[in-house]
From TrEMBL:
Residues 63-118 form the Cupin type-2 domain. It holds the Pfam family Cupin_2. This is Cupin domain-containing protein. InterPro entries: Cupin_2, RmlC-like_jellyroll, RmlC_Cupin_sf. It comes from Donghicola mangrovi. It comes from the Bacteria.
Amino acid sequence: MEIEPILSELSFDSLPSAAPEALRVDASTLPLEGGDDPAFGTVRWKTLFSADRTATSDMVLGIAEFDAGGTLLPHRHEPAEFYLGLSGSGEVTINGTLHPISAGVALFIPGDAEHGVVAGPEGLSFAYGFPRASFEEVEYRFSAPAAE
């Protein structure tokens, strides 16, 4: 039996890679981002899972935080998204339909659906996620230019 011809036909590029390790992220240790770009509104966020920052793949997970009356301006992006209310309350408009959100309420936002958020008087926080490896892969397209 000739070994060399058999080995030359193998491709190690097609072998499955090792499964990723489990990962624990403590959101209280992460900095808040955002809040200073009028194109987005006043939303601030923490990125918990994103392949450009963590040893994760196939999903992005973050927490959005809003002060009383805070906003995430109407926008779209190709991937679907979910919100899961953690505290406070607010309103999410998805394709023109108003959806209240509060602790324990989950919302599914279809891909390319226009959506925006307005926090209630006590503020709002929710978890959000995308079926993408990295947050950088999600291209936000805002519906109207921010007021100057």
